[in-house]
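Quick one - inputs below.
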Amino acid sequence: MYNGLKNEGIKTIIAPTPRKLSTSCGISLMFKDESIINEIELIAKNHRLHYIKIDFVDNAFDKNRGKYC
Amino acid sequence: MADYMKMWKDLGMDTDKHDLLCEALPQAFGDIYLSQENRPEFMDYFNFVVSEIHGVRPMELIEHQKKGGKVFGTFCVYVPDEIVFAANGIATGLCGGSQFWVGGGEKVLPPNVCPLIKASVGARLDGTCPFFKIADMYIGETTCDGKKKAWEILADEVPLYVMDLPQMKRAKDINAWAEEIKDFKCMIEKTTGNTITSQSLNESIKLINNKRKALARLNELRKNEALPISGSDALLISQIAFYDDPTRFTEMLNKLCDELDERVKNKVSVFDKNAKRILITGTPMAIPNWKLHNIVETSGGAVVCEETCTGIRYFKNYVDESQTTVDDQINALADRYMNINCACFTPNSGRIDDIIALCKEYNIDGVIDVNLKFCTTYDIEGYTVEKSLQEAGIPVIGIETDYNDTDAQQLKTRIGAFIEILED
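Output:
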């Protein structure tokens, strides 16, 4: 999916899947611009790219949070 | 993390406890790494590795075992991976970089032992890291008292071979280390059932040298005035180097370096031009210990160099590839590894020379000498390090910390103040 979208000019970032979205899926592709969702769905359909779902997370990353793992 | 539950259960892991770590990782990684602006595109490979940190590589190791191969877990940069790979084994660094694992270690270790050792023991005893469960044998070393005695406890759990690292660097000690590597070779051959030949050892020397060269290439790029990559990213890459497949890692890192070359040509920097250039020296930062880099790089600093075992010490100097007999190759390995300047050696003036030379090469504004709590060797050596840097006119601050979040704000205040007083 990452490469398929990249080949069509859509840049995403590979990220660990937030737990709020799933407890069993490791990799997500992160993007910020909601307006391209339809385009992503169309590219995936046309190129038979597999993904589980497109979803939203509303907690921003905070580089100053000071919480580590 | 994808659904590797069956694999984890088959390994005998405590999956309920492990799930707590899985829960924390995405947010922590996002805060520290994905919040960065203008990150190089090829960091996506390393994002992938972290996203699947307890999945993809463990599965590869298990597949290797199913084909009759052996996996050896290591804890120290003095252990020559070349010997393991020459016997068609796989060497994997065993991490001890999370507070999550410390409690498990404290069940059997006194609290006044460094967190890296406690986390390493805890990861095994609590069954919360697949790498610790997969390794057929652990390779320990006599670097410090804490480790020496911790191996005795771990040996009840898993086959454990200890290499006797000398404490000094006289000619006889380098010879002794060569003999120790020969014994290690015999054990590896017996355990794997494979003979190490001069050809197989030459190939593995080149394999690991190539990984070192890729890391050296990355770190050369950090000498530039415009920094194409953050110190946090460089640290992550170095941490992944310890356990990823060497061939794949080298290839992907070189691709990243190609991108960084372009950034340097175009003077692209991921930091503000006023960011102070910081060198971190001291104790290693096993994955996922990202705390100090995050604090520095959110306090007006840019970490441009690490004089640590998860930095320069891991890859500086290469093994001589021209030797053609196993004995000479082992001597070459001993020479290269005994050039690592760890505080477990006495004297260790080479480390002071290294730090001062690096300060010049990387145009450093200030040095942070970091010590994991209860690490006696680095703590005591910190006196000499800081005195030498002060005499050389290089600003330095000494920091002692562990893996807890509790001192993060205090460190931020101290480090922020240090960075603020550094001159332009």
